[in-house]
Design a protein that fits this description.
Helix content: under 10%
Order of helices and strands: EEEEEEEEEEHE
Oligomer: single chain
CATH architecture: Sandwich
Strand content: 35-45%
CATH topology: Immunoglobulin-like
Structural class: mainly beta
Number of domains: 1
Length: 146
């Protein structure tokens, strides 16, 4: 089985306030989870979410933009500035986020990720995703400029 998904960002070094868009690609078909860790150690889960188009499924070897051109929302670079880490996980089976994230309430749009802290995304969160989900992952490091 191929070993890596590919994640890129446009623009590659966004400025605070600038709209951003991720490009997702995977050698396997599957459901997508996308996480970002900020320089302060806070980790957010961008996908899946409870927006109308917040569940993304990739087809093998096809590129998909997030958010898409027809999306009901957009992403904008924000503080803190500095180096951010991103993790794209594509599960070849049903996506299992038990112990990784949970919605704080029935009305929450985005799930809260656990654990938080510098290095937790590419450490504990990535390890849990791999343990719970057969699939592939890809990482990206990018800098948000002032």
């Amino acid at each position: 089985m191929p070993t890596a998904a590919v994640l890129t960002l446009n623009p590659t070094e966004p400025r605070v306030g600038q709209d951003i868009q991720f490009t997702l690609r995977s050698p396997v078909s599957g459901d997508v989870a996308l996480f970002i860790e900020s320089p302060d150690g806070s980790v957010i889960q961008l996908l899946p979410n409870r927006q109308p188009d917040g569940q993304v499924r990739l087809n093998a070897d096809q590129t998909q933009l997030f958010p898409s051109a027809s999306s009901t929302f957009f992403l904008r670079a924000s503080a803190p500035t500095g180096v951010h880490a991103a993790l794209l996980y594509v599960s070849s089976g049903p996506l299992n986020l038990s112990g990784v994230s949970d919605y704080a309430s029935p009305s929450s749009t985005f799930a809260t990720v656990s654990p938080q802290g510098t290095g937790s995304l590419l450490g504990a969160v990535a390890a849990k995703m791999k343990l719970l989900n057969p699939g592939v992952s890809g990482t990206l490091t990018f800098t948000v400029q002032p």
